[in-house]
Amino acid sequence: MKAVTFLLHTQQPILATSLQGDPNSDVSHPYIPGSMIRGMLISRYLRQYPPTQADILDNDDVKRLFFDGKNCYLNAYFCDFDKAKPLDSENQKRTLPTPLSLYKEKGQELDRGVWDFSQIAINRRPDSPQRLEQGFCLVDDSSITVYQEKRRINIHNQRNRQRGRGNESSGAVFRYDAIDAGQTFQAVVLCDSDQDAEMIKSLLQPENETEKINTWLGGSQSAGYGHVTIELWSKQDDCNDKDDRNHKNDWNEVNKSWEDRKERQNNLTVTLLSDTILRDECGQHTTDPQELVKLLCDELGLTLKHIDTYASSTIVGGFNRKWGLPLPQVPAFAAGSVFVFKSEKLDVEKVKNLEIQGIGERRVDGFGRIVFNWLIEESIFSASKYVGSTASNQEEEKSLSSESEKLAKRMAVRLLRQKLDELLLEQVKSNTPENSSKIKIENSQLSRLMIVAKKALTEGKPDPLYELLGREENSDNLTKAARTQFKQTEMSNGKKLDEQIRDWLNNPESLILSWGSKHIVGNKPGVTIASQSKTLDNQLSLEYTLRLIIAVTKKMIKDKNND
Fold first, then answer.
1. Per the count of CB atoms within 10 A, which of 149, 262, 428, 538 is most buried?
2. Is residue 212 within 8 Å of residue 204, measured between CB atoms?
3. HEC profile for 169-211?
4. Contact assessment for residue 456 and residue 464, using Cβ atoms and an 8 Å cutoff
């Protein structure tokens, strides 16, 4: 199988309409569909080689190139593109849909790590898991970089063609949510023969080497949408395996040969790299995981034990330009769905054929792409967000008016407090005695401690607590009985209650520094909104330290009462 790779640089927003949104909205796919690329290539072919037949399907070359399913036109996914680097597979990489088995802790940043639920036991999973928001990723062993395409939302109003403006019968307001200009997407055409590959490449090459191919994709092309330029890779490979480029069946989308993925100690995983359309035994479209299991068993010639599924469904459609009609809308498995099986020894050729040919319907348009054992057998991956390195990917900073600066500062303060509130909730449980039997202090002493802490919070200084407990460990501010109760109450970290409170008061910033590398502004915990920053100061550290003492005290009282 010969892979023809090229880049699509968006010069205008692209409206590759999906079936999302309300009736007055058109929401674009986050990628450029393979059907759209196939239609563009058909148009270019017919301009260069006008058919003599009335129906283009009567032309054998047209039918072989675009319709009989031997050649596949894959979706153009977001590309990690850098103009300063050579145009090859090592430097310009095509992202892929993020596996739906990847989760992070809700409310946490990606630098805290992400969990692969297909490889981790239930009792080791985070308490509040959340799927990754970013739709695309690049995987490098145990490191994952996630990507999110930029979008542009425009509001339009329908107008009467004769009057040139809207009226009562023709003046609806509608919205376009499109892929923004200034981004690069990488497309791949899988060709069954070298002859077809050369023909596809000829359609993607400009007549003059100094020029670029300009074409239009998607909807509303007359309204400022759809303009892209095409850049063909000068060097095309049969496969991604550098050591074995003569094996045409070794090409795969994950840039990793099957020999490097086949050895598994635990589970076998199957990940969908595009939406997948399947039918059940009655001929109805379905998103039942068992139908996919049956299909894989038939294709691989063995029985797979299905363990788990991390999947989502979607509705897919399309448009037939020859008919001038939309395609039927059918349910499908969403890209990124992961199916987990018991590890089995698989036939190498059958796996490679499945990864090249795909499964299900409309494979010519890039549907049904799959990969086996994409992620390595790690339960936790390090993750980061993609930061554009070119000027086109960087937002221009604009000077703010005085009112906007004030608003941005207020937003930064509120957002910082929101993050501190979330951190406070996390710290309460971890700083409370694990067992209520270790809480030797009476509720009356805890209530007294809470009242004094609230007084310190109101005054904005720790003096009331120091007056209660004393500044030193051997202080005699407390009565002997009360001091004994404080000493006998052991916190989760092994410290005594009065010792822990003194540590918090002496180092109030220690609570906030548990953020690690999250929300850092100028080496300090903080938040930036529109160039306006709010960082942690001593007063804010003391406030949240006192609030932590109050919250821990309340929880200790509650635990004692529930015991």
1. 149
2. no
3. CCCCEEEEEEECCCCEEEEEEEECCHHHHHHHHHHCCCCCCCC
4. yes
- Partners of 10 in the β-ladder: 228
- Alpha carbons 352 and 262: distance in angstroms, whole number: 11
Can you read off the two tokens belonging to residue 66? 């675009």
Residues 21, 177: Cα–Cα separation, whole Å: 9
* The pair of three-digit structure tokens given for residue 48, joined into one six-digit string: 């260069």
Would you put residue 406 in left (φ > 0), alpha (ψ -120 to 50) or beta? alpha
Distance CA 81, CA 185 (A): 8
Q: What is the pLDDT along the chain (563 residues), one digit of tens a residue?
A: 789 999 999 999 999 988 877 777 889 999 999 999 999 999 999 999 988 888 888 888 899 999 988 999 999 999 987 765 656 656 678 999 999 999 998 877 787 789 999 888 888 888 888 899 899 999 988 899 999 999 999 888 777 666 666 666 666 788 889 999 999 999 999 999 999 999 999 999 887 776 788 999 998 888 889 999 999 876 555 544 444 444 444 678 898 888 888 887 788 999 999 999 999 999 999 999 999 999 999 999 999 999 999 999 999 998 887 788 889 999 999 999 999 999 888 999 999 999 999 999 999 999 999 999 999 888 888 888 887 644 444 444 457 788 888 898 899 889 888 888 888 888 888 888 877 788 888 999 999 999 999 999 999 999 999 998 888 887 878 888 898 898 888 888 888 888 888 888 888 877 666 654 455 454 567 788 877 878 888 888 899 999 999 999 999 998 888 87
Strand partners, 140: 143
Q: How far apart are CA 519 and CA 527, in angstroms?
A: 6
320 beta partners: 325
DSSP state of 398: -
Q: How many CA atoms lie within 13 A of 63 on its CB side?
A: 7
Give the tokens for residue 5: 């790779």
Element (DSSP H or E) covering residue 427: helix 402-430
> What DSSP letter does each residue of 499-540 carry, written as one string?
HHHHHHHH-GGGTGGGGTTTTEETTEEEEEETTEEEE--HHH
Q: What Cα–Cα distance (Å) separates residue 283 from each residue in 128, 277, 334?
A: 39, 12, 20
Residue for token digits 């498995």?
A: 333
Strand pairing report for 306-310 and 325-326: unpaired
The domain limits of the chain are 402-562
Instruction: For residue 472, count other CB atoms closer than 10 A to its CB.
Output: 10
